[in-house]
């Protein structure tokens, strides 16, 4: 891309070839070759349970998220910006089954206590 022997200088303060200081060579309209700074690629938001990328949300650098509106940062659902739909569904089902289990346990306990009451011999009251 660049002609052999063409020397380019960084346009920013950092003079080392680091991950945060990546450059690409650009041709200006005047025919010069200059460096253009490249922004780092964003990883984007991921589900806190299964670590899959969340769909419907932009992949931005952390500072860019601060500039977004709330409706752009999350999906309109419970746990919208932090959990994927599959994990939310699993949570709802798990909570429902736990409640059902509590109800069943209570019914069985009531049935057991009523059976015990019927089997107890009646005590005579002394006068």
Describe the structure.
This protein is mostly helical. It is built from 3 helices and 2 strands, in the order ββααα. The protein has 2 domains: 7-40, no CATH class; 42-114, no CATH class. The chain has helices at residues 62-67, 70-73, 85-119; strands at residues 23-27, 33-37. It has a two-stranded antiparallel ribbon with strand order 1-2. The radius of gyration is 33 Å and the shape is rod-shaped. The model has no long low-confidence stretch (mean pLDDT 91). Belongs to the eukaryotic ribosomal protein eL34 family. Pfam families: Ribosomal_L34e.
Task: Jot down its keywords.
rod-shaped, mainly alpha, 60S ribosomal protein L34, ribonucleoprotein, two-stranded antiparallel ribbon, 127 residues, Ribosomal_eL34_C_sf, structural constituent of ribosome
Short précis:
The protein has three helices and two strands. The protein has helices at 62-67, 70-73, 85-119, and strands at residues 23-27, 33-37. The radius of gyration is 33 Å and the shape is rod-shaped.
Proportion of residues in β-strands: 5-15%
SSE series = EEHHH
**What average pLDDT do the residues reach?**
91
- As a whole number of angstroms, the C-alpha radius of gyration is 33 Å
What spatial order of strands do you see in the largest sheet? 1-2
Span of the ends, CA to CA: 113 Å
Largest sheet: 2 strands, antiparallel
Query: What global shape is seen?
Result: rod-shaped
* Category from helices, strands and their pairing: mainly alpha
Uncertain segments of ≥5 residues (pLDDT<50)? none
Count of DSSP-assigned helices: 3
Find the count of extended strands (DSSP E, 2+ residues): 2
Q: What fraction, in percent, of the residue positions are helical?
A: 25-40%
User: How many domain modules?
Assistant: 2
């Amino acid at each position: 891309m660049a002609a052999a022997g063409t020397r380019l200088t960084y346009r920013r303060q950092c003079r080392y070839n680091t991950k945060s200081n990546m450059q690409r060579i650009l041709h200006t309209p005047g025919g010069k070759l200059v460096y253009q700074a490249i922004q780092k690629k964003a990883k984007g938001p991921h589900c806190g349970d299964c670590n899959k990328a969340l769909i419907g949300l932009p992949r931005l650098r952390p500072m860019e998220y601060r500039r977004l509106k709330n409706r752009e940062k999350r999906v309109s659902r419970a746990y919208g910006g932090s959990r994927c739909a599959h994990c939310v569904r699993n949570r709802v089902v798990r909570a429902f089954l736990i409640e059902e289990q509590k109800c069943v346990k209570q019914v069985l306990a009531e049935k057991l206590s009523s059976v015990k009451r019927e089997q107890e011999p009646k005590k005579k009251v002394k006068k």
